[in-house]
Amino acid sequence: MMAKNQTLGEFIIDNQADFPYSSGELSRLINSIRLAAKVVNHEVNKAGLVDITGEYGDTNIQGEEQQKLDVYANNKFIQTLTNREIVCGIASEENEDFLTIKGCNGDHQNKYVVLMDPLDGSSNIDVNVSVGTIFSVYRRLSPVGTPVTAEDFLQPGNMQVAAGYIIYGTSTMLVYTTGNGVNGFTLNPALGSWYLSHPNMKFPENGKIYSTNEGNYIHFPQGVKDFIKYCQEEKEDRPYTSRYIGSMVSDIHRNMIKGGIFMYPESSRARNGKLRLLYECNPMAFITEQAGGKASDGFKRILDIQPEKLHQRTPFFCGSKKMVEKAEEFMQR
Ligand SMILES: O=P(O)(O)OC[C@H]1O[C@](O)(COP(=O)(O)O)[C@@H](O)[C@@H]1O
Ligand SMILES: [Mg+2]
Ligand SMILES: [Mg+2]
């Protein structure tokens, strides 16, 4: 039976049976993510007070302006995962190539790789709007004891063993799945503990919110234009409400609670959309499916895409099952 006011630490211990093959490593991995998240949260909360916001003065591999907090969060998560010797490799939005992590004896004994978007929604940092962190965990394919290879990172999303996000919003939450449903923990900043506040999160099967950057409307494929018109039509339970924060984590988190669809489709300017398959779409798709929702590129399941490149992009439709099915119906006409 679930204890009242259960902390994340207690939850992990109570749910060890979720990880039949785990020797405690995956639990330790989640533990180090919750620690790094607290440190990053502390820094994010000071944005505006001290000189941690604004541009870092460099661009990342995707040619995007890096914010100081992008770099800070990237370093913190890498540092925490590396120091604790839990993973053998890390890939990040902010690094061109994956990093190989050796144990203290210079070996490669660990079995997990982590892919992450250390700060999602960077353009919202300076304006005090929620941002997030996204992570995705795989068991390595190459033999333990040898250096990691690109193939360890280029696995389809259906091979994920865990995925989660942290949302730095009105409160800070850590939401994750190990393939047995989705649970959300809220940080009590005074105590520094995460409490199980949202057990067994579920996407409503249908919803009344659509979230997309409608400023790109003119460049959207006809299917998306038609679906947006459908959402706006005065019929049955429509028109739906349009809500777009511009931090995917926050947009999907809201839709998971209230019911809705998030879309970042391809456009005539960006043939594969904007969002990255490996550390943005796959983890959010895994969480979404575990919560009873659906995630697609408009035609096929996100989690079944065989990745070819670390920073590969994909169109993304994610949310309440019936709404994603409806969007696919328009895309496939
Ligand atoms: O400004 P746009 O084009 O609508 O893009 C917003 C999208 O870009 C992102 O900010 C991309 O993430 P990063 O901030 O990690 O690059 C998503 O969180 C968000 O959904
Ligand atoms: Mg992002
Ligand atoms: Mg980012």
UniProtKB/TrEMBL annotation:
Mg(2+) 2 binds at D117, D120, E280. Residues 7-199 form the Fructose-1-6-bisphosphatase class I N-terminal domain. Residues 204-332 form the Fructose-1-6-bisphosphatase class 1 C-terminal domain. Keywords: Carbohydrate metabolism, Cytoplasm, Hydrolase, Magnesium, Metal-binding. Pathway: Carbohydrate biosynthesis; Calvin cycle. Substrate binds at D120, G121, S122, S123, N213, Y244, K274. It is found in: Cytoplasm. Gene3D superfamilies: 3.40.190.80, Fructose-1,6-Bisphosphatase, subunit A, domain 1. Its main location: cytoplasm. Its cofactor is Mg(2+). One of its GO terms (molecular function) is fructose 1,6-bisphosphate 1-phosphatase activity. It is an enzyme of class 3 (hydrolase). HAMAP family: FBPase_class1. Homotetramer. This is Fructose-1,6-bisphosphatase class 1. It comes from Autumnicola musiva. The lineage of its organism: Bacteria, Pseudomonadati, Bacteroidota, Flavobacteriia, Flavobacteriales.
